Amino acid sequence: MGVSVGYLAVLLFSSKLLASGFSLLQGPPADQKGRNSGKAGDRERGSRRSHISSFHRQMAILVSASALFPSEVEATDSSLEGFLDGPLGTKYKVLKDGTGRYPGKKDRVKIEYTAWLRGFGNSVGKFDTTVGKDPLVVPLDKNYVIDGIEVQVKQMREGETRRIWVPTKAGYADEGVPSYVPRGADLWYELTLDEVLPVGPAKKSKRSRGVLVDE
After folding, report:
1. Within the chain, what is the greatest distance between any pair of CA atoms?
2. 8 Å CB contact between 199 and 107
C-alpha cells in the first residue's frame, strides 16, 4: 500500500512541477516584453533564473524520489508475447478454455471483465470493471460494445476467459472517453464469457466506459 501511495504522490508532485516549469520557461507575454527593459527587466530576468534553478533542483529531487517508488505501470504486464492475432488488429490469449456454445450474431451475452490502460493488472490504469458488481448483459448486434470486444466475444465459447488487447482503431479511437480513456489509447481487457442468452431485449445502461459505448 505504501508503494502505491508513494507513487501517486510522486505523480501529483511531478504534474505540479511540470505545470510550474512550463509557465516559468515560457517567458513574459508579448505585451510585457517592452516593459522588461533596464533595471526592472534585469530584476525580472534574475528572478526568473532563480525560479528556474529552483525548479531544476526540485525536478532532481523528484527523479531521486521516483526511484524509491517502483512504477506500477512498470510492474504490470503490457507484453503481448504469446498472444494470437484476432480480427480488426486485436490480439488475445486464452487463459481458460470454454466448454459451452459460441454466441450467434444476434444473441445476448453475459460477460465479466476488467479494463486497463497501459497493461494488464495496472491498478493505476484500471478504468472499469464488473468485479464486485453484476455481470454485464449486452446484445451483439446493437453496437453496445466497442468493435474490438465484439469481434473477440463472437469467437469465444461459454466459460472461456481471455486477455484481449484492443488497438485504438478498434476501441475509442480519437474520441476517447472523457476522464477515463485518453484519445488514441490502446486498451487491455481480461474478459470471461459467462453465458450466451436467447435473443431478447438487454437492460439498457448509461455507462460509457469499459466495453460499452454511449447509447
Report:
1. 82
2. yes
